[in-house]
Amino acid sequence: MVSSVSAEGNNKYCFAIDRGGTFTDVLCICPGGRVRTMKLLSEDPERYSDAPREGIRRILKEETGADLTAAGLVDTSKIGWVRMGTTVATNALLERKGDPVVLVVNSGFRDLLYIGNQARPKIFDLNIRKPANLYQTVVEVDCRIVPEQADRCQLNHQWKVLQGVTGCRYLEVQPVDELSVRASLAAAREQGINSVAVVLAHSYACPEHELRIGAIATELGFSHVTLSHKAMPMCRVVARGYTACAEAYLTPHVDRYLASFKSGFENQLAGVDVLFMQSDGGLTNMENFRGARAILSGPAGGVVGYALTGSRETDLPLIGFDMGGTSTDVSRYAGTYEHVIESTTAGVTIQAPQLDINTVAAGGGSRLFFRSGIFVVGPESAGSHPGPACYKKGGPLTVTDANLILGRILPQYFPKIFGPNENEPLDYELTKRKFGELQSDINEHLKASGDSRVLSIEEVALGFIRVANETMCRPIRALTQSRGLDTANHVLSCFGGAGGQHACSIARNLGIAKVVIHKYAGVLSAYGMALADVVQEVQEPSGAEFNDANAQLIKDRLDALSVQCRGQLAAQGFKQIELQAFLHLRYEATDGALMCTAAPVEHSQLSDQTTSPLLAAYGDFHATFLERYRTEFGFVLQNRRIIVDDIRIRGLGKNETPPELQVEQAQEASPTAEGLTEVHFDQGAFQTPIYLTKHLLAGHQISGPAVLIDQLSTIIVEPECTVQVTAYGDLIMDVQTSGKHGINAELDPVHLSIFSHRFMSIAEQMGRVLQRTSISTNIKERLDFSCALFGPDGGLVSNAPHIPVHLGAMQETVQYQLRVRGDTLKNGDVILANHPQAGGSHLPDLTVITPVFFKSEPRPVFFVASRGHHADIGGITPGSMPPHSTSLAQEGAAFKSFLIVENGVFQEEKIIQRLTTPSGAKGAVGTRNLSDNLSDLKAQIAANHKGIHLVSELISSYSLNVVQAYMHHIQKNAELAVRDMLRQIGRDTLERTGSTVLVAKEFMDDGSPISLRVTIDPENGSALCDFSGSGEEVWGNCNAPRAITLSALIYCLRCMVGHDVPLNQGCLAPIQVVIPKNSILDPSEGAAVVGGNVQTSQRIVDTVLKAFRVCAASQGCMNNITIGDDQWGYYETVAGGAGAGPGWHGAGGVHTHMTNTRITDPEILELRYPMILKRFCLRTDGSGGRGKHVGGEGVERDLLFRKPVTLSVLTERRTLQPYGLAGGGPGKSGRNLIVKHDGRVIALAGKTCIDVEAGDTFAMKTPGGGGYGLEDDSSTADQQGIENIQRFVERGTVHNYRQSQESA
């Protein structure tokens, strides 16, 4: 394809470069406008030391004949500019190869960044692997600043008052101990540490202490001093601390790379305009390129590239689809860049403006597996080394290999850079041989399952491609539909080396009718660097209420930041400068802050004398906030104050990038093919024409099937699709979408995987609707809910998210309704339930169930349900979780089977009456927050309605018979996975002990036993789990409803399986469960149960894992703390130690098993509640059990009360210790103490409710985890094997949302 851009007129060569993890892409704009591209390996030390510099040198040599000066440096006389994105910071973060850092924190917070939000990264991993620290050592400083809280604080103090930059007042509890700081930092300096990160509580508003410590560090000779309030002046000390640490850790590494890059050029690039891409999609001078803002440097270029080029071809919003070797990046552009202010990469939360780029688990190098009858793609990746099998370096089968088998990659058009010496072509025969081995395994499984089909190698490969495509479609649906957007109403903008092979299928699966592929799609990230503007950001915290009274103040701060930003860009020589003003707005007492620009205001609106000065100068921020809030969440809050968290100005220094010129016009509609090749599609094998894109001209049209070969990528045009070449040489692909799928009800392992994704997607999208339309903090922000799909028998099909205590529990609720209501359910009925006898967990968890009717079917064909934790439903204490309840009536309103919607009519009067009527227990009242209850119940009904719509769509596409058949197939597949696991455990147990019976007994702190006897049949993979012998129902609230025991059992089974399986009723099919009636595990109808949900559930898990001898006990407690008075309430659960296992030490300061709740950031805690967090760190008394592998440490958490409050504590493992295993020692039990203001120390029971006074401190030590193995055991037989694999790193709002859900 002949293409060019207009010349700059200076006869110089301009370079845009994307240095990726595997390849470096170079795009050069030559004098006269001609464009050259080049792709190099990013690492090739035998040939060159730096890939971007080598790319520049080669092009200069080929174009001018002269590349180096006499000194051997690259000649810069012909270089106009260099714009570059690089993964150097990302790679250093992923591989933890940054500089040693000393972290300076307030005393008592030494482990704050290690504990983080206390949630574990992967909910089913018993071997909890927390991200490695970015700091090498910690200095604790005796200094402290807290919010004044003059209206609530009743402490008798003489603390100095400080004025914060937000306008709020703070108290200096303790000034900086400068002598101690100097001595501690000097010691760190003597260890050779040159980088320091200073992270102090509330420094974003009161930076005095950080500034003083920073000055001391500079005096001592630290070369890199990062102060958290300068790295990012935003509230939340944990996220700000990660950002400061990343800055201190990465920036020296980035600086060294920049110095190395410059060193190979004449005069170190002096006089050449060199700019680097930041995570926000803007360029910055090389001198200002910092570590924390460089994480998405390369991917950001791709977003800029498709946004600025793709939008000229359509008015519809674009979905960016960048498929690389290890993973795929997905993003969205609808006229403006979509930024997030906080995002997590490699376990590090960065507070900085970043493009919302979502990384998903399917790239060209994603590995292929066949597990328990299901096709699996990723998330493991072969990476660049060893790479796919066809690379001839000993790699495994991957998506790339599948495309090679199908003829979608043609080796003759690939460079010969493979094999041990990197001089061989792709190896088709090796890939075919490996696929043959996999084919044999699959066909043997089919034969053993009674399936007579024999799949060919091509059918196997095509199956994996279909699964990979569905894997990528799922997050795209989440990215769009989570915001109420129609995925089909988008255009897919495809780029990246592997994207063109999948674009047609992805678009068809999503219902998208058009795909845009830019002519530089293979190097679009590099081209995006050429198109981007220089960005300068300035930001400061605020805290002001957004109202007319503060309008002038907010305008003045925007004005001041605008002057600062414009001045910084002008100093860089920019004449054309654009400024964008932002306010970070949220409703008071919520966490859902939105970064808002101002909506334009018509001149006629400004004629009123009362016009706000802010409105007149900048536009209507209020209108933007309301519109975005309504779009994101489905409603706005009435009569609620709006708070300005931050004020921000984003300045653009406009670059004069040469515009693209149009390509030559074709004289004939169809181009000439280079030849034919056989390619396999869903429709069969076709002799497919091959076209070289370099020969395509404007106006050419190609009908599929076709293979388009670009210099840097391959594009597959599927049958029934057409491609047209635009005036600029880009490709527009029209995709024929069909709503019908021609498959039958017989089990197909490929469609088994696809339906597994589709069923999960239904539950996920229901959850997004529930989160958007709910109003309470628990559901909207803490995401404490689950949504699920059930079969006509009430059996679970899919559940999202995977909150352990909800797993399988809703199935009991749905099946109870079927037993009670039978055939009386009608279309338009919706049922409400929460009673333990009806499958409930505890009363605040309200479950809404809706039957799904389809056309003329007389009975429900499916059920959908949503379970959400309501903040209050009455009872004897606020929050409906009393620590001392002895009957269910004390815990709030109970519903067994209540028709909340009947014949399509919401029964508002009836539900209000039930919720507001006290339960009858002494001291009990009705709900304390009726409006939130009603709003959240309506949101749950709306989520179910979404589920009905999606199920109906699926049935319309495949037929009821097929969808229900695959529902059963999915459940059978889960059963198969559990049977395989039980067979293996049965054989191992028989070999180890001579028996297939496993026995375990654990005790609650009150002595109540949890007994389990497991009898395994290793032949058919079944087991009897008998809890007979467990304790009687208790006089208290630690009784666990039957559903809790089943949830704990499913959780343990999933953990032991060790890989993803569909979590549905099939998991329990091979297991017969015996639970004695009227016991602690299946109490009578009126028994109190709130502690069973949060405490006994943990002991059940301890007992199951002990029986199977999987690992030592974790802390076995959720450490529930409730604090408040008549005006406010606060609830938290606190982390502890994880149990060690064969091959791993237990993690410390983390939630385990049946909970994964995030903890409130210390700054938010102290701003909103009359408390001071004095200590939050790991225990130092050896709470982790000893052993070959030691248990994780519990935590110490001390809360100082600033006024009298009521403290409720609901804890376990205060008497009995978490067990060790295989000779390992037990973890230490926890302790609850009150330190009175006069110095007395009082021990509290595990379950208590007391009134405390101002000046009292609640000091908690949570239990540690048990150890595993004898300390003197030198055997390494139980060490985990280390496999040469690379896992993709998820990031973006879709990933963050799922992490939030799984930490509810």
TrEMBL record:
Q: Which residues form a coiled coil?
A: none
Put simply, this protein is called: 5-oxoprolinase
Tell me the superkingdom of the source: Eukaryota
Which Pfam families is this protein grouped with? Hydant_A_N, Hydantoinase_A, Hydantoinase_B
- Give the Hydantoinase B/oxoprolinase domain ranges: 748-1269
Q: Where is the Hydantoinase/oxoprolinase N-terminal domain?
A: 15-220
State the organism named in the record: Drosophila navojoa
Q: Which GO terms describe its molecular function?
A: 5-oxoprolinase (ATP-hydrolyzing) activity
Similarity comment: Belongs to the oxoprolinase family.
